[in-house]
Model the fold of this input.
Amino acid sequence: MKVLHILIVMCILILVSCNNQNNSSTHQEDTSDIVMLNSETPNAHEENSIPSIAQSYLDDQTNDIASYKAIHIDDQLFVAFNATPLKQAVEQKIEKRVKKDLETLTKIKDIQVTSDQKFYIELTKLENQQLSKDQVLKKLKELKKLSKEQT
Done:
């Protein structure tokens, strides 16, 4: 009788573990077009791809940018950064320059660049959550709307 109970428990565990593997693979398909960039991770993207170009440009801006978070999805790029302590007084100028440079380098017209802490925190939350592509697009739309209200 004990052996029968053990076999039943083992079968249930196998079925549950197989079910979890299927859910994670379908979730990964939904987020395949979403590329998260930040200043702590090395550049692991294809050479000459938009995320690679953007990340290498932002990494080169160490005199002005202390850290950054960025997301690239469907020809949209949203960048939030923290300026270095000496450059915090001219954050708006840095924003304009970074946006202009990224537009010329990546040929993307829909680029949002901000130094606002709120957006930096929100992109960090997005990075830590496992959301579908539609959910990320909705969240970015809300962030863009909020950034236009504040400027």
Summary: The CA atoms of residues 32 and 133 lie 8 Å apart. Strands lie at 35-38, 65-73, 76-83, 110-114.
